[in-house]
Amino acid sequence: MIRLRGQLRCMTEDEAATVRQFRPEHERLTREEPGCLAFHISDTDHPLTFEVMETFRDRAAFDAHQTRTRASQWWEATRHILRDFLVEEVAD
To answer: CA-based angle 73:3:46, to the nearest 5?
Structure first.
């Protein structure tokens, strides 16, 4: 399995509002992808920081997700927001 964990770190409330606006559709589309086992973007105690957790069946499913995401409205709206992510392969 491939797991991504980390944070989206917004610099302004406008950036955080953008994450909140586009998050539901991004989550829905991602969860429908073949090989997606789990996908969550969660609020934190800090209003400008969001926790991200993704799990995909294998590297091919994760790579397909990355490709789809780069062509999405989510990416267009949020690509400038700081991402602090760790991607790792984990045993099933």
So the answer is: 65
Tokens for 61, please give them: 């499913």
If 0-12 CB within 10 Å is exposed, 13-18 middle and 19+ buried, where does residue 37 land?
middle
Is pTM, for the whole model, over 0.90? yes
**In which domain, by residue range, is 64 found?**
2-89
Q: Is the dihedral of CA 43, 46, 48, 50 positive or negative?
A: negative
For residue 44, the Cα-to-chain-centroid distance in whole angstroms is: 15
- Output the DSSP codes for 20-75: HHHHHHHHHHHHTSTTEEEEEEEE-SSTTEEEEEEEESSHHHHHHHHHHHHTSHHH
Q: For residues 3 and 38, what is the distance between their CA atoms, to the nearest angstrom? A: 9
Number of structural domains (the chain) is: 1
pLDDT tens-digit map of 11-22: 999 999 999 999
